[in-house]
Amino acid sequence: MWLLSVGHGSRQALVVAGPHANEPVGGATALRLAERALADSRLTAGADATWNLLLCLDPDGLRRNAAWLSGPYTLGRYFRKFFRPGFLEQPEWLPDGAAAAVLPETRALLGLQDELRPFLQCSLHGVDVGGGFVELTRELPGLAQRVAHTAARLGIPRELGAYDTLYWPDIGPAVYRIPPPRRGDLVAAITEAAVESTWFHPHRYGTVTAVVEAPMWGVAAVEDGSPPADRDAVLRAVSRTLRRDTRLLRRLLDRIRPHLAAGPDAARLLAPVDDYLLVCPGLADAWDPDCGAPDGAAAHPMPPLSTAHLTALRIAGRRLALRTAGLLHQLVAGAARDPAGVLPELDQLIDGWCADYRDGCGARWIPVARQAEYQTRVVLAAFDLAVRHAPACSRSGEPGWGYGAAVPMHRE
H-type helices in 155-299, by residue range? Predict the structure, then answer.
């Protein structure tokens, strides 16, 4: 992993690019931030700050996405060549806590956080289909307005009902507060980001972490805050579709698995497939308004939902299916033989589901330069607000976000 440092200030800003293997925009953003910090002393000496830019947290995973990164950028090519490791091999997560971290990338990031004690940490993520949004471990008043301005200037849809944040409090449009971490089983850890993670690890130092999501294919409807015409009908359709797609994919996996050669490559592709198929039934039940508890009450009460929320759920269900189909396609194509005869079926599914994204959801490619510029401006906005609000926090009695501030880790 490569780390760039710009500036000599006492306050440390940490930027982490490439935490997920299939989200490459953060690397381009990190280089833009380095250029801006070198060119504008207000970002370094003027703020008594040093920028620490980690160019890619998961370089091995990123290399496995090289086949679609070379272009052309189509949904079909992306999902057929997509790679993201299983949950336990994703370096941002701490499923058993920091002390038990196994991955060298995770240990390196934890060591960097403990050494720097950053006042701001920005984790750079990419949304494959949807819109841009920000998740915060501490509030940054005014960030929602900055995000709205940047998104409007660059033509980036804001995700006003992000699937990841369905049960989280809104700080402002497309800005969400990450709940404190808690321990949970594997299903909860895969589907809920409010678990032990490197986002919250530096919380004890007063750090504010901003998870900045930039979309690759934008969908205008994710920023439609209007009430839906028939909320329950849409939820039933999304749940029914996810259950149907999961059954199809399970049958295909059952046909493929006996013919797979044992080895690390197949294991790496099977791990995320098993993860996705593990969580899909529970998600379909959670979104289904008719899936109630025995006494008739909703087993998974949903918050109030806008059209944006329903669009995000539709995209999320289809994403799980497409990722699984794409990984299965790679398992078979990589073996140079198809004894189960599944490739034509997988190709048909991937083409049809990508067409639904393109024609049904209106997904449109956002040029890489625009993705990176959007993410860069949001990070700079978060930096400016963190610098501005740190003194106020110190005066109010809460430890500031400067170097060396320390507060106890809070867990539910």
Answer: 186-191, 231-256, 264-287
Side chain identity, residue 22: N
Cα 331 from Cα 325, distance rounded (Å): 10
Nearest residue to 23 (alpha-carbon basis) of 103, 165, 127, 174: 127
Is the bond preceding 72 in cis, omega lying within 30 degrees of 0? yes
Distance CA 113, CA 120 (A): 10
Query: Alpha-carbon distance 273 to 275, whole Å?
Result: 5
Contact status, residue 148 vs residue 173, Cβ threshold 8 Å: yes
Tens digits of residue pLDDT in 150-172:
999 999 999 999 998 999 999 99
Per the DSSP assignment, residues forming a β-bridge with 93 are: 197
User: Rounded to two decimals, what is the model's pTM?
Assistant: 0.92
Helix or strand holding residue 6 (H, E): strand 3-6
Contacts for 403 with CB less than 8 Å, ≥ 6 apart: 10, 11, 12, 116, 117, 119
Q: Which two tokens stand for residue 402?
A: 């400067």
CA distance 396 to 400: 9
State the CB neighbour count (10 A cutoff) for residue 290: 10
Nearest residue to 9 via CA among 114, 109, 143, 116: 116
C-beta pairs of 368-371 under 8 Å, 24+ apart in sequence: 368/25, 368/28, 370/154, 370/155, 370/156, 371/25, 371/28, 371/126, 371/156, 371/214, 371/215, 371/216
How many helices and strands in the chain, by DSSP H and E? 12, 9
Check if the beta carbon of residue 370 is closer than 8 Å to that of residue 95: no
Q: Max CA-CA distance within the chain?
A: 69
Give the span between the Cα atoms of 62 and 30, in whole angstroms.
Answer: 15
d(CA 178, CA 139): 10
Could you tell me what percentage of the chain is helix, strand and coil, using 3-state DSSP and rounding each to the nearest 5?
Answer: 50, 15, 35
Q: Going by C-beta distance under 8 Å and a sequence separation of 6 or more, which residues neighbour residue 287?
A: 235, 238, 239, 242, 300, 302, 313, 317
Each residue of 257-314: pLDDT tens digit? 999 887 888 999 999 999 999 999 999 999 999 985 444 434 457 899 999 999 999 9
